Amino acid sequence: MIDLLAYEKELYSEGIEYIAGTDEAGRGPLAGPVVAAAVILPKNTIILGVNDSKQLTEKKREELFDIINEKALAVGVAFVDNEKIDEINILEASRLAMMEAIKKLKIKPEYVLSDAMKMNIDVPVKPIIKGDALSESIAAASIIAKVTRDRYMDEMDLKYPNYGFKKHKGYPTKDHIEAIKKYGITPIHRKTFKPIKTMLIEQLEFDF
Protein backbone atom coordinates (compact mmCIF):
# COMPACT_ATOMS: atom_id res chain seq x y z
CA MET A 1 0.00 0.00 0.00
CA ILE A 2 1.28 3.45 -0.97
CA ASP A 3 2.12 5.81 1.88
CA LEU A 4 0.62 9.07 0.61
CA LEU A 5 2.61 10.99 3.21
CA ALA A 6 6.01 9.54 2.24
CA TYR A 7 7.20 12.69 0.45
CA GLU A 8 5.77 14.95 3.15
CA LYS A 9 7.34 12.92 5.98
CA GLU A 10 10.77 13.23 4.38
CA LEU A 11 10.37 17.00 4.36
CA TYR A 12 8.96 17.07 7.91
CA SER A 13 12.08 15.21 9.05
CA GLU A 14 14.15 18.08 7.64
CA GLY A 15 12.20 20.61 9.71
CA ILE A 16 9.94 21.76 6.89
CA GLU A 17 6.34 22.22 8.04
CA TYR A 18 4.44 24.18 5.40
CA ILE A 19 4.30 21.95 2.33
CA ALA A 20 2.04 22.87 -0.57
CA GLY A 21 0.80 20.29 -3.02
CA THR A 22 -0.28 21.62 -6.40
CA ASP A 23 -2.10 20.14 -9.38
CA GLU A 24 -4.30 21.21 -12.27
CA ALA A 25 -7.48 20.09 -14.00
CA GLY A 26 -8.47 20.71 -17.58
CA ARG A 27 -5.45 20.14 -19.79
CA GLY A 28 -7.27 17.96 -22.29
CA PRO A 29 -10.63 19.68 -22.93
CA LEU A 30 -11.47 21.62 -26.07
CA ALA A 31 -13.26 24.29 -24.04
CA GLY A 32 -12.96 26.18 -20.80
CA PRO A 33 -10.07 27.14 -18.55
CA VAL A 34 -7.31 25.15 -16.96
CA VAL A 35 -7.75 25.35 -13.19
CA ALA A 36 -5.00 24.79 -10.63
CA ALA A 37 -5.13 24.43 -6.89
CA ALA A 38 -2.50 24.54 -4.17
CA VAL A 39 -3.15 23.05 -0.74
CA ILE A 40 -1.22 23.16 2.53
CA LEU A 41 -2.43 20.52 4.99
CA PRO A 42 -1.54 20.43 8.70
CA LYS A 43 1.50 18.30 9.50
CA ASN A 44 0.90 14.53 9.16
CA THR A 45 -2.74 15.00 8.17
CA ILE A 46 -4.38 12.08 6.40
CA ILE A 47 -7.86 12.60 4.97
CA LEU A 48 -9.54 9.25 4.40
CA GLY A 49 -10.37 8.70 0.75
CA VAL A 50 -8.08 11.35 -0.72
CA ASN A 51 -6.55 10.12 -3.97
CA ASP A 52 -6.00 11.17 -7.57
CA SER A 53 -9.25 12.97 -8.41
CA LYS A 54 -9.61 10.95 -11.62
CA GLN A 55 -9.90 7.78 -9.53
CA LEU A 56 -12.83 9.10 -7.50
CA THR A 57 -16.53 9.40 -8.23
CA GLU A 58 -18.07 12.85 -8.59
CA LYS A 59 -19.95 12.34 -5.31
CA LYS A 60 -16.74 11.40 -3.47
CA ARG A 61 -14.85 14.37 -4.91
CA GLU A 62 -17.60 16.71 -3.76
CA GLU A 63 -17.49 15.25 -0.23
CA LEU A 64 -13.70 15.50 -0.06
CA PHE A 65 -13.73 19.03 -1.50
CA ASP A 66 -15.56 20.25 1.61
CA ILE A 67 -13.39 18.24 4.01
CA ILE A 68 -10.14 19.46 2.43
CA ASN A 69 -11.27 23.08 2.58
CA GLU A 70 -12.23 22.60 6.22
CA LYS A 71 -9.00 20.90 7.31
CA ALA A 72 -6.42 22.69 5.16
CA LEU A 73 -4.26 25.45 6.57
CA ALA A 74 -4.45 27.20 3.21
CA VAL A 75 -6.02 26.67 -0.21
CA GLY A 76 -5.29 28.66 -3.36
CA VAL A 77 -7.11 28.34 -6.69
CA ALA A 78 -6.32 29.94 -10.05
CA PHE A 79 -7.95 29.95 -13.50
CA VAL A 80 -6.19 30.47 -16.83
CA ASP A 81 -8.78 30.99 -19.55
CA ASN A 82 -8.95 29.56 -23.06
CA GLU A 83 -7.64 32.73 -24.68
CA LYS A 84 -4.47 32.62 -22.59
CA ILE A 85 -4.14 28.89 -23.31
CA ASP A 86 -4.27 29.65 -27.03
CA GLU A 87 -1.69 32.40 -26.56
CA ILE A 88 0.96 30.52 -24.55
CA ASN A 89 0.01 26.79 -25.03
CA ILE A 90 -1.55 24.41 -22.53
CA LEU A 91 1.68 23.36 -20.80
CA GLU A 92 2.67 26.94 -20.02
CA ALA A 93 -0.92 27.78 -19.07
CA SER A 94 -0.95 24.87 -16.61
CA ARG A 95 2.37 26.03 -15.16
CA LEU A 96 1.06 29.60 -14.86
CA ALA A 97 -2.13 28.42 -13.15
CA MET A 98 -0.13 26.42 -10.59
CA MET A 99 2.16 29.35 -9.84
CA GLU A 100 -0.82 31.67 -9.44
CA ALA A 101 -2.55 29.17 -7.12
CA ILE A 102 0.58 29.02 -4.95
CA LYS A 103 0.67 32.83 -4.79
CA LYS A 104 -2.92 32.85 -3.52
CA LEU A 105 -2.11 30.72 -0.47
CA LYS A 106 -2.56 32.73 2.73
CA ILE A 107 0.49 30.93 4.16
CA LYS A 108 3.71 31.00 2.17
CA PRO A 109 4.89 27.42 1.66
CA GLU A 110 8.41 26.39 2.52
CA TYR A 111 8.36 23.68 -0.12
CA VAL A 112 6.11 22.70 -3.05
CA LEU A 113 5.27 19.22 -4.30
CA SER A 114 3.85 19.38 -7.82
CA ASP A 115 2.25 16.90 -10.14
CA ALA A 116 5.16 16.58 -12.58
CA MET A 117 5.47 20.33 -13.14
CA LYS A 118 8.72 22.27 -12.95
CA MET A 119 8.30 25.85 -11.78
CA ASN A 120 10.68 28.76 -11.38
CA ILE A 121 9.46 30.19 -8.08
CA ASP A 122 11.12 31.44 -4.90
CA VAL A 123 10.64 28.19 -2.93
CA PRO A 124 11.96 24.70 -3.70
CA VAL A 125 9.75 22.57 -5.96
CA LYS A 126 9.79 18.80 -6.35
CA PRO A 127 7.94 17.61 -9.47
CA ILE A 128 6.56 14.09 -8.92
CA ILE A 129 5.36 12.02 -11.87
CA LYS A 130 1.82 10.82 -11.11
CA GLY A 131 2.13 12.83 -7.92
CA ASP A 132 -1.65 12.99 -7.49
CA ALA A 133 -1.56 9.26 -6.69
CA LEU A 134 1.61 9.42 -4.56
CA SER A 135 1.27 12.49 -2.35
CA GLU A 136 -1.55 13.47 0.01
CA SER A 137 -0.93 17.17 -0.62
CA ILE A 138 -0.98 16.86 -4.42
CA ALA A 139 -4.02 14.56 -4.34
CA ALA A 140 -5.88 17.11 -2.21
CA ALA A 141 -5.00 19.83 -4.72
CA SER A 142 -6.16 17.65 -7.61
CA ILE A 143 -9.58 17.28 -5.98
CA ILE A 144 -9.94 21.02 -5.33
CA ALA A 145 -8.93 21.82 -8.92
CA LYS A 146 -11.20 19.19 -10.48
CA VAL A 147 -14.32 20.09 -8.48
CA THR A 148 -13.77 23.83 -9.02
CA ARG A 149 -13.41 23.37 -12.77
CA ASP A 150 -16.38 21.00 -13.02
CA ARG A 151 -18.58 23.52 -11.22
CA TYR A 152 -17.45 26.22 -13.63
CA MET A 153 -18.29 24.02 -16.62
CA ASP A 154 -21.73 23.34 -15.12
CA GLU A 155 -22.25 27.12 -15.24
CA MET A 156 -21.08 27.18 -18.86
CA ASP A 157 -23.63 24.45 -19.62
CA LEU A 158 -26.37 26.89 -18.61
CA LYS A 159 -24.82 29.63 -20.75
CA TYR A 160 -24.25 27.38 -23.79
CA PRO A 161 -26.90 24.65 -23.45
CA ASN A 162 -26.36 23.05 -26.87
CA TYR A 163 -22.90 21.67 -26.09
CA GLY A 164 -23.41 19.28 -23.16
CA PHE A 165 -20.70 20.86 -21.00
CA LYS A 166 -22.34 19.57 -17.81
CA LYS A 167 -21.85 16.02 -19.07
CA HIS A 168 -18.38 16.07 -20.63
CA LYS A 169 -16.88 19.25 -19.07
CA GLY A 170 -15.45 20.29 -22.43
CA TYR A 171 -13.52 17.10 -23.20
CA PRO A 172 -13.44 15.96 -26.85
CA THR A 173 -16.25 13.42 -26.70
CA LYS A 174 -18.08 12.42 -29.87
CA ASP A 175 -21.17 14.36 -28.78
CA HIS A 176 -19.12 17.48 -28.07
CA ILE A 177 -17.41 17.39 -31.46
CA GLU A 178 -20.75 16.87 -33.21
CA ALA A 179 -22.17 19.86 -31.32
CA ILE A 180 -19.25 22.03 -32.46
CA LYS A 181 -19.85 20.98 -36.08
CA LYS A 182 -23.55 21.76 -35.75
CA TYR A 183 -23.51 24.96 -33.69
CA GLY A 184 -19.98 26.32 -34.19
CA ILE A 185 -17.44 27.31 -31.57
CA THR A 186 -18.26 29.33 -28.45
CA PRO A 187 -16.17 32.09 -26.83
CA ILE A 188 -14.82 29.50 -24.36
CA HIS A 189 -13.48 27.07 -26.97
CA ARG A 190 -9.72 26.67 -27.44
CA LYS A 191 -8.93 27.65 -31.02
CA THR A 192 -5.46 26.08 -31.11
CA PHE A 193 -6.75 22.60 -30.19
CA LYS A 194 -7.63 20.01 -32.80
CA PRO A 195 -10.19 19.47 -34.23
CA ILE A 196 -11.26 23.10 -33.67
CA LYS A 197 -8.08 24.44 -35.26
CA THR A 198 -8.67 22.25 -38.31
CA MET A 199 -12.29 23.41 -38.56
CA LEU A 200 -11.23 27.06 -38.43
CA ILE A 201 -8.60 26.54 -41.14
CA GLU A 202 -11.14 24.79 -43.35
CA GLN A 203 -13.63 27.62 -42.76
CA LEU A 204 -11.02 30.21 -43.77
CA GLU A 205 -10.22 28.27 -46.93
CA PHE A 206 -13.93 27.98 -47.73
CA ASP A 207 -14.52 31.70 -47.16
CA PHE A 208 -11.52 32.52 -49.33
What do you see in this structure?
There is one protein chain. With 208 residues, the protein is an alpha/beta fold. The protein has a single domain (6-207), classed as 2-Layer Sandwich (Nucleotidyltransferase, domain 5). Helix content is 44%, strand content 14%. It is built from eight helices and five strands, in the order H-E-E-H-E-H-H-E-E-H-H-H-H. It has a five-stranded mixed beta sheet. Strand 1 and strand 2 form a beta hairpin. The model has no long low-confidence stretch (mean pLDDT 95).
Helices and strands in order:
Layout: H1 6-12, E1 19-25, E2 34-40, H2 58-71, E3 74-80, H3 82-88, H4 90-103, E4 111-115, E5 125-128, H5 136-159, H6 165-168, H7 174-183, H8 196-207
Parallel strand pairs: 1-4, 4-5
Antiparallel strand pairs: 1-2, 2-3
What's this model, at a glance?
Helices cover 44% and strands 14% of the residues. The chain is built from 8 helices and 5 strands.
Q: How much beta, percentage-wise?
A: 5-15%
CATH topology (level 3) name: Nucleotidyltransferase, domain 5
CATH architecture: 2-Layer Sandwich
Question: Number of DSSP strands?
Answer: 5
The portion of residues assigned to helices is 40-55%
- Biggest sheet strand order reads 3-2-1-4-5
Uncertain runs are: none
* Rg, alpha carbons: 18 Å
Structural class: alpha/beta
Distance between the termini: 60 Å
Mean pLDDT across the residues is 95
Order of helices and strands: HEEHEHHEEHHHH
Number of helices: 8
Task: Report the top-level CATH class.
Answer: Alpha Beta
For the largest beta-sheet, the strand count, sense and barrel status come to: 5 strands, mixed
